[in-house]
Amino acid sequence: VVDALYDFMPSGNLPVPNGDDIIPEINNLLSKFKLVVFTKEEHPHDMQAFASNHDGKKPLDNYINANGDEDILWPDHCVKGTKGAEIHNDIDFSLVKGEFNIFSKGLYKEEHPYSGFGAKELLPFLKKNNIQDIYLCGLATDYCVKETALDAKKHGFNAYLIRDACRGISPNLDAIYTELENSGVEIL
Ligand code: VGL
């Protein structure tokens, strides 16, 4: 469950349209899995990916990140210790029959990983648990869910995206679904 966090909900600082529609879908899914992993972002205030930390820049402008790649500047979001960085409270953890774990990413100002595998402990954790199939949902389809799915394939897992339990920032996600399918991610 990728980044089902208050700042990505419709009233948050980086709202994903209808982002809260995924919550009942997630609650319907939680009991079906042996192991449930939630990811969350926990950014410092001085995050380089925040437009507010660049003079004269605004959200959605481009910048060159610490790796030398062009990337997008975002409004301040999921700042560590704020409500925006919390998992939505209507997600009912008690429905998980097996184990659940929470992994945090984006803890350092230089790096804004979109992928859940940006939490470095995630890959060894999944391997240790002999996981082969990863079913993905959460926010946002076109950024963090997509990158997590692509990384899952890269690391040799079977990856399935549960479409109704995701929402995207862009109103048209067709190109995202095509890119994912071309990379071997199955869209359910
Ligand atoms: C996300 C943009 C910026 C996401 C995170 O969770 O998809 N998108 N930070």
Q: In words, what does this structure look like?
A:
- By secondary structure, this protein is an alpha/beta fold.
- It has four helices and seven strands; from the N terminus they run αββββαβαβαβ.
- It has a three-stranded parallel sheet.
- Bound molecules: pyrazine-2-carboxylic acid.
Q: State the end-to-end CA separation.
A: 15 Å
How do the strands of the widest beta sheet line up side by side?
Answer: 5-6-7
Number of strands: 7
Which parts are unreliable, with pLDDT below 50 for 5 consecutive residues or more?
A: none
User: What is the helix fraction of residues, given as a range?
Assistant: 10-25%
What proportion strand? 15-25%
- SS-based class: alpha/beta
Mean pLDDT: 97
Shape: globular
Number of helices: 4
What is the helix/strand order?
HEEEEHEHEHE
Bound molecules: pyrazine-2-carboxylic acid
Mind describing the biggest β-sheet?
3 strands, parallel
| Radius of gyration, CA atoms, in whole angstroms | 16 Å
Keywords:
alpha/beta; 188 residues; binds pyrazine-2-carboxylic acid; two-stranded parallel ribbon
Task: Summarize the model shown.
It is built from 4 helices and 7 strands; from the N terminus they run H-E-E-E-E-H-E-H-E-H-E. It is α/β, with parallel strands linked by helices and 188 residues long.
Strand and helix map with partners:
Elements: H1 22-29, E1 35-41, E2 62-64, E3 70-72, E4 99-105, H2 122-128, E5 133-139, H3 141-154, E6 158-167, H4 174-182, E7 186-187
Parallel strand pairs: 1-4, 5-6, 6-7
Antiparallel strand pairs: 2-3
The structure holds pyrazine-2-carboxylic acid.
